[in-house]
Design brief:
Elements lengths: L6 E6 L7 H12 L3 E6 L14 H7 L2 E6 L1 H10 L7 E5 L9 E2 L3 H9 L4 E5 L2 E7 L2 E8 L2 E6 L6 E7 L2 E8 L1 E5 L7 H4 L11 E7 L9 E4 L4 E5 L6 E5 L2 E6 L3 E7 L4 E5 L5 H8 L7
Parallel strand pairs: 1-2, 1-3, 3-4, 4-5
Antiparallel strand pairs: 6-19, 7-8, 7-18, 9-12, 9-16, 10-11, 10-15, 12-13, 13-14, 15-18, 16-17
C-alpha cells in the first residue's frame, strides 16, 4: 500500500454545484500533497475554475480516490473502480455514512495523516450480477451493497424462485428479494429485517421484501456459492437493481446469476477505525436517554 499518493481523484455527488465552496476547500487541501482530478457525478461542466474530468479518465490516472458526499457517492465510485488496484476513502456529507466515515470537519487532519502513511486498510468484496435470457448473457454489472430483483409495479407482488449452488432454496411471493453483501447488510437489507454481517465474513444474505409467507426469514449463505433468481411462470415483470440503480426489466425468460466478484475493493479508514463504534453511532445503540 502506498504511503505517498502522487495523483488523487475526487468524486463528488451530482448536486455539489450548490456546494462549490466545499469542493474548492477539499481540492485546495489535496493539491498541497498531490495532483488532483475532479469528477462531478452527472455533471460535465467545470466546477467554478476546476476542470471536471470524466469518471473513466479519473480512475485511469489516479492512485487514490476520495468520494465527497454520502454512501451513494462512494458506491458509485466503488463500482467505477471495480477490478482496479486503487484504494478509496469516503468523506461524509450525507446522513448515515456507514461507508463514508470521515466527517468533513475532520477532513484536513485526516488527509495529512493519510499522506503520512497513518491509516487503516480494509478489503470489502463486491458481487457480480449476470443477466441472462435463456443461456444468452445479456449484461453484467457490479455491486458493493446489493443486487435486488423487485416488482416493476410498486403495488404488485412478484413470484420468484431462488437457488444456491444449484439447489432450490424456495419459491416465494413478495415485493422482491435482496441479495446483500456484508457491506450492504446495513443498507436496504437492514430495513427489511436482514442480519447485520461483519465485513470480514465471506457470506451473502437473501432478504425477502415484504414476503407473503409470514414464516419466511432471511438466509445467510457462503459467498462462494452462486445464487440464481428466476421469476415464476405466472409472475408479473420485475426490475433488477445494482446498488439502487435499475438496469433491466426481468421477465420469465430471464435469470440473474449472482457471484462474488474476483477482485476486492480497498477502503482506507482513520487509524482508530472501529466497525462497532460506527454501528453504535449510526444506529443509536447504547444511547443515553
Amino acid at each position: 500500500m502506498h504511503t505517498k499518493f502522487k495523483s488523487i481523484g475526487l468524486i463528488v455527488r451530482s448536486d455539489m454545484q450548490s456546494r462549490q465552496e466545499k469542493i474548492h476547500q477539499v481540492v485546495e487541501v489535496l493539491a498541497r500533497h498531490a495532483r488532483v482530478l475532479v469528477h462531478c457525478l452527472e455533471y460535465d461542466q467545470p466546477i467554478g475554475e476546476i476542470s471536471n474530468v470524466s469518471l473513466n479518465q479519473l480512475v485511469a490516472e489516479v492512485d487514490l480516490v476520495i468520494s465527497l458526499g454520502g454512501d451513494g457517492t462512494l458506491l458509485t465510485a466503488a463500482r467505477a473502480m471495480a477490478g482496479k488496484n486503487i484504494p478509496l476513502l469516503g468523506v461524509n456529507l450525507g446522513r448515515l455514512g456507514f461507508l463514508a466515515d470521515v466527517s468533513f470537519a475532520d477532513f484536513k487532519s485526516y488527509i495529512d495523516a493519510v499522506m503520512g502513511g497513518r491509516y487503516s486498510v480494509e478489503e470489502r468484496f463486491l458481487i457480480e450480477g449476470r443477466f441472462f435470457e435463456g443461456e444468452k448473457l445479456l449484461a453484467t454489472n457490479i455491486a458493493l451493497n446489493d443486487i435486488i430483483v423487485h416488482s416493476y409495479e410498486s403495488s404488485s407482488m412478484i413470484e420468484y424462485e431462488i437457488s444456491s449452488g444449484g439447489d432450490l432454496i424456495h419459491i416465494q411471493r413478495s415485493d422482491g428479494v435482496i441479495v446483500t453483501t456484508p457491506t450492504g447488510s446495513t443498507a436496504y437489507a437492514l430495513s427489511g429485517g436482514g442480519p447485520i454481517m461483519h465485513p470480514s465474513l465471506n457470506t451473502l444474505a437473501i432478504v425477502p421484501i415484504c414476503p407473503h409467507t409470514l414464516s419466511n426469514r432471511p438466509i445467510v449463505l457462503p459467498a462462494d456459492q452462486p445464487i440464481e433468481v428466476r421469476l415464476g411462470k405466472d409472475s408479473l415483470p420485475a426490475k433488477v437493481s445494482y446498488d439502487g440503480h435499475s438496469t433491466a426489466i426481468v421477465n420469465t425468460e430471464n435469470r440473474v446469476r449472482i457471484t462474488r466478484y474476483s477482485k476486492p475493493l480497498t477502503l482506507l479508514h482513520p487509524e482508530d477505525y472501529d466497525y462497532f463504534q460506527v454501528l453504535r453511532a449510526k444506529l443509536y445503540w447504547s444511547a443515553n436517554y
